[in-house]
UniProtKB/TrEMBL annotation:
InterPro entries linked to this entry: Homeodomain-like_sf (IPR009057), HTH-type_TetR-like_transc_reg (IPR050109), HTH_TetR (IPR001647), Tet_transcr_reg_TetR-rel_C_sf (IPR036271), TetR_SbtR-like_C (IPR049445)
Keyword Coiled coil: no
Gene3D superfamilies assigned to the protein according to its UniProt record, in alphabetical order: Tetracycline Repressor, domain 2 (1.10.357.10)
UniProt organism field: Streptomyces coeruleofuscus
Listed name of the protein: TetR/AcrR family transcriptional regulator
PROSITE patterns the UniProt entry points to: HTH_TETR_2
SUPFAM superfamilies reported in the protein's UniProt record: Homeodomain-like, Tetracyclin repressor-like, C-terminal domain
PANTHER family: HTH-TYPE TRANSCRIPTIONAL REGULATOR BETI, HTH-TYPE TRANSCRIPTIONAL REGULATOR RUTR
Domain (HTH tetR-type): residue spans on this chain: 19-78
Keyword field: DNA-binding, Transcription, Transcription regulation
DNA-binding region: 41-60
Stretch forming the signal peptide: none
Length: 214
């Protein structure tokens, strides 16, 4: 007599309210990390999110996990902005512009240094998110160059450095007071990327590998 093998049980899907709570926590953490830096008390994040402390710890066992989720989420939204612009218009330079301005809106220059300076920057989730950013930016820039829209002597690293520098200050140092001119300066930078180039740049185009080795 054979015993029937029980069918494997499917993992239960998170309830809608649990997903909403997680999203509220990540949103509140992003806001408070930008305002106060990565050491803001988790109790304060829970209060801003409108959830209990236990809910925060149930979703994120430690501060490292929460910071990582915040950084990955902003990187993914930046990628999505570039992809959406390509899908909507097919205009590679417009996709590059949207990528750059979204990076500033998402406070990448404030959030990403938290990982490299305080937490595990080599976590697989972070590496995967960074790879997605580099991939879409490289694709957008390659297409813009092929269309004659983007000067040929710039690299992905050039764009990432400029975005980080022009959208400062970092977290906790009057980040929001810079909003009135950040996008103005970013657009000046973007206009300087358009082909044909009006001058020769010193040195070679900067790659992401160059930045990692710097």
């Amino acid at each position: 007599m054979q015993t029937a093998t029980p069918a494997p049980r499917k993992a239960p899907r998170p309830r809608a309210d649990a997903l909403r709570n997680r999203e509220r926590i990540v949103t509140a953490a992003r806001e408070m990390f930008v305002e106060h830096g990565p050491e803001v008390p988790l109790d304060d994040i829970a209060r801003r999110a409108g959830v209990g402390n236990a809910t925060v710890y149930r979703n994120f066992p430690d501060r490292d996990a929460l910071v990582r989720e915040v950084v990955c989420s902003v990187l993914d939204r930046t990628v999505a902005a570039g992809e959406l612009a390509l899908a909507e218009t097919g205009d590679a330079f417009e996709a590059l512009e949207r990528f750059v301005h979204t990076s500033a809106d998402e406070r990448i220059s404030a959030l990403c240094p938290m990982v490299s300076s305080t937490f595990d920057e080599n976590h697989p989730d972070l590496e995967a998110a960074r790879e997605r950013v580099e991939r879409i930016l490289q694709e957008v820039m390659d297409r813009a160059k092929a269309a004659g829209q983007l000067r040929p002597d710039v690299g992905v690293g050039d764009v990432m450095v400029a975005v980080a520098q022009l959208s400062r200050p970092p977290a906790g140092t009057a980040c929001f007071s810079a909003d009135s001119f950040v996008h103005r300066h970013l657009q000046l930078f973007l206009d300087g990327l358009r082909a044909p180039a009006r001058s020769a740049l010193p040195g070679a185009a900067v790659t992401m590998e160059d930045l990692r080795q710097a």
